[in-house]
Amino acid sequence: MEGCTTIPLTSKEVTPTVRFLKAVADEAQYLLLSHDVFNGDLAGSMQFAIIHGGMTGIVAKVDGGVVGNCIVSREGLEASQHVGNVMVAVREDLRGLGIGGRMVEEAMKLSPCELFVAECFAENVTSIFLFASLGYKQRGEMPKFIYKDKQFHTKIILST
Ligand SMILES: CC(C)(COP(=O)(O)OP(=O)(O)OC[C@H]1O[C@@H](n2cnc3c(N)ncnc32)[C@H](O)[C@@H]1OP(=O)(O)O)[C@@H](O)C(=O)NCCC(=O)NCCS
Questions:
Q1: Strand residues in 46-108 grouped as ranges (E)
Q2: 130-146 pLDDT, tens per residue?
Q3: Is the CB of 87 under 6 A from ligand 1?
Q4: What are the two backbone dihedrals, phi and then psi, of residue 76, each rounded to the nearest 5 degrees?
Q5: pTM of the model
Q6: Atom 5 in ligand 1: residue holding the nearest Cα
């Protein structure tokens, strides 16, 4: 999309990125893994992870404001440091313009990880298509993994 720039997620970008994440966090299909968004010190954990190599990512901006974000969080397990968990979100009115795909592609290039994993609701067709278009394959599904809005949802696991 013209007028949209993408830059690496650095410490300087954490505050506007957290503001963006909080604004999109209400969406049922996103931030499955990030209880921190509501409960913890997300900005603090992100700063720590960026500084210590546990997180890389991309921020998308339009007119200086954050409109999208892709995070690659490294697995905590010592033996799985080559694995990056990918999460992506784009501001609702700017979806379908290629920003999400572009951020995931750039975030993967920037990351030192060798294997990338993404998770989403089974209903999240856009997300499944996005990751599939970048070579991810569906590796599994977990029925009833998520209980949200008084309903069980299936979680899909994809990886490169
Ligand atoms: C998922 C999300 C990030 C996608 O962002 P986006 O900017 O709209 O995605 P893009 O425009 O880059 O589309 C990516 C690809 O998926 C394809 N695609 C998207 N929706 C599709 C659909 N319904 N059917 C077929 N293909 C589809 C696009 O064609 C594109 O592929 P291409 O580049 O080869 O043409 C966005 O919808 C979002 O923020 N959702 C809420 C958060 C979320 O669910 N995140 C995923 C879980 S971490």
A1: 55-62, 65-74, 83-90
A2: 999 999 999 999 999 88
A3: yes
A4: -75, -30
A5: 0.92
A6: 100
Superfamily of domain 4-114: Gcn5-related N-acetyltransferase (GNAT) (3.40.630.30)
**To 5 degrees, how large is the angle CA 102–CA 37–CA 24?**
50
Distance 56 CA to ligand 1 centre (A): 20
Atom of ligand 1 nearest to the CA of 132: 16
pLDDT of 113 reads 96
Residue pLDDT, tens place only, 68-111: 999 999 988 889 999 999 999 999 999 999 999 999 999 999 99
Residue nearest atom 43 in ligand 1 by C-alpha distance: 30
CA distance to 49, 90, 96, 113, per residue, from 100 (Å)? 22, 6, 8, 19
